Amino acid sequence: MLRCTMEPRFCETDALGHINNTVVPMWFETARGPIFEIFNPGQDLAKWNVILRKMDVDFIAQIYHGHSVDITTRIAHVGSTSFICEHEAWQRGELVAKGTAVMIYFDFAVQRKLEITAEQRVGLEKLS
Questions:
Q1: Contact 87/71 with Cβ under 8 angstroms?
Q2: pTM for this structure?
Q3: Within the chain, which residues score under 50 in pLDDT?
């Protein structure tokens, strides 16, 4: 499992005074950074090889500026060409959001899926 802490910025608040719902998917993507390293060490954009197929977010409670948010990420499933990440966001000990992201190992040059290698599978399974 991966863990990271996000510090909500004032600019991420909305007119209702809480963190805008568009921010959480970005936090979850940030939390996937170490997973991207498994597929593309150094995260060279010219060699990018992972694409988002689907994501969802359940907003459980409001998130506020001024209190850090802890994000946990785990790999829930590894298929032949894709994998599923599960995320949770916690603020002050309370689950405030959770979601999943389906990621595909992808060759952008030929626009097709790639088979996840044994080495990549081992890296992903360490995060389950």
A1: yes
A2: 0.94
A3: none
